[in-house]
Amino acid sequence: MAGEQGHSFAVNDGKIGRVLIAFMAVGFVALIAAGIAAAWVTGEMARHSQAVSHTYEVELSIAETRRLIEQGETTRRGFLLSPTTASFLDAYNTTAAALPVATKRLRQLTYDNPRQQVHLRTLDKHLRELLALRAESMELIVAGDIAEATERFREELSSVRLRQIRAVFDLMAREERNLLRTRDAQQERSISLFYTVLVVAGLLLGAVAIAALLVVVRYTGDLAQSREQLQQLNESLEAIVVDRTSDLSRANDEIQRFAYIVSHDLRSPLVNVMGFTAELEAATATLRELVERAQEEAPAILTEDAQLAAREDLPEAIGFIRTSTQKMDRLINAILALSRQGRRVLAPEPLDLMRMVGQIRDSMAHRLDETGASIDVVGSLPALVSDRVAIEQILSNLIENAVKYRHPDRAVEVQVRGAAAADRVWIEVSDNGRGIDPRDHERVFDLFRRSGTQDQPGEGIGLAHVRALAYRLGGTITLRSALGEGATFRLSLPPTLSLQEKS
């Protein structure tokens, strides 16, 4: 029943999560769409605003050019009427100098408008004629020939040309006003579209928010209704966990006792086999002496099979029996050692890992000298509070294996490093030895399992013992290695061993 309730809770949670994720996805899509639309509308508004501003600039330029032409004509007439007044001449020269700049500016502003370019070509034609006549009359006035200048002025019909120029300016101004009305309308449409996008996005986001709120309110109500059931379920689960933990502890103790009893009971027949093997070996020596005497005194009664049995078959068979019994004795001792370690009470204490590695190195000094191996600590090792015996056995086993399984082409280099990270302490033992095939990374930690060429003594107990000790200390051990590239064993432990959890 409790499992069914937990399953229903998980299903409801999953449905609610999917619904909320769907609402969030819709909301994000709405935001993205609104952002894209707002960016596009903003760009359009900026473009239209720039176009409106450009129209205003063109209108101002038209007005400025027209003003300069009118002012130039006014100052010329004033100078004609009062040739002794220097201010008219100065004003005329200033206006004449500014007019080319103004017309160039107007031409640049309207280069993309074909109609305005047509108007400008007409304007240029009238201006060239007007400016030529102005220059002639101004030269006559400056030379003092007022009568000739007056006569020329009457003949040139400047008022007619000015009306023509004004008409061109009126056409250009009308063209810009038409453009301004069109661009104002486009800008208003862009603003309306922008607000429409904002309203639609706001409505969509509001709908998503309301729907999500309704779902959350409903889910909250369901949680309130199921809280009591969950509390009851948790209480029952706690009781189940306590019972299962107790059962596991009893099973573990029973397994350790069973291993101890089995290994102890196996030793009794093994001792008998070893004893009878010794007797057989002694009897074989007596039998071999008898065969040798018979060969000397009565060779006729001695067959070739009897000689072969006494001298080769029996000693070889006894040797096989002795080798097998010795191996079985080592296996039984290993099982007993594992069983005793499982029953041993852990004793946490502050450990100096640097000193511990140094002691292990000192204990192997003779072997290191013989093989040319080196053991180095990289950096400093972290502080650790744990069981001294277990940590010594782990490090000793890993370092001895690194020295034992060397690469034939290079001297052994073993490096020990470690550090504290978050709530764990890790220690690594690396070597440059023969390495371990990745397919065997798990099996090397199994009892009585080994990897690679079996050219070194051992029963496949060490790494199984190391992993069992690591588990008892609340840690784990992992392996990184490849054939021919050495191996790295990484031990991860809690910085302080808790007896409440691991005793």
Write the layout of secondary structure elements.
Layout: H1 2-81, H2 86-109, H3 114-143, H4 146-155, H5 158-297, H6 304-343, E1 348-351, H7 353-363, H8 365-371, E2 374-377, E3 384-387, H9 388-404, E4 413-421, E5 424-431, H10 462-472, E6 476-481, E7 487-493, H11 499-502
Parallel strand pairs: 2-4
Antiparallel strand pairs: 1-3, 4-5, 5-7, 6-7
GO molecular function, one term: phosphorelay response regulator activity
Catalytic activity: ATP + protein L-histidine = ADP + protein N-phospho-L-histidine
Enzyme class: transferase
Report on this model:
- The chain has 503 residues and is α+β, with helices and mostly antiparallel strands.
- The chain folds into 3 domains: 2-221; 249-342; 346-502, 2-Layer Sandwich (Heat Shock Protein 90), CATH 3.30.565.10.
- The protein contains 11 helices and 7 strands.
- Helix 1 packs antiparallel against helix 5 and helix 3 (114-143) packs across helix 5 (158-297).
- The model is unreliable at 1-11 (pLDDT under 50).
- It is an enzyme of class 2 (transferase).
- The chain crosses the membrane at residues 20-41, 193-217.
- Keywords: Coiled coil, Kinase, Membrane, Phosphoprotein, Transferase, Transmembrane, Transmembrane helix.
- It catalyses: ATP + protein L-histidine = ADP + protein N-phospho-L-histidine.
Features:
503 residues; alpha+beta; Heat Shock Protein 90; 3 domains; five-stranded mixed beta sheet; two-stranded antiparallel sheet; elongated; membrane; phosphorelay response regulator activity
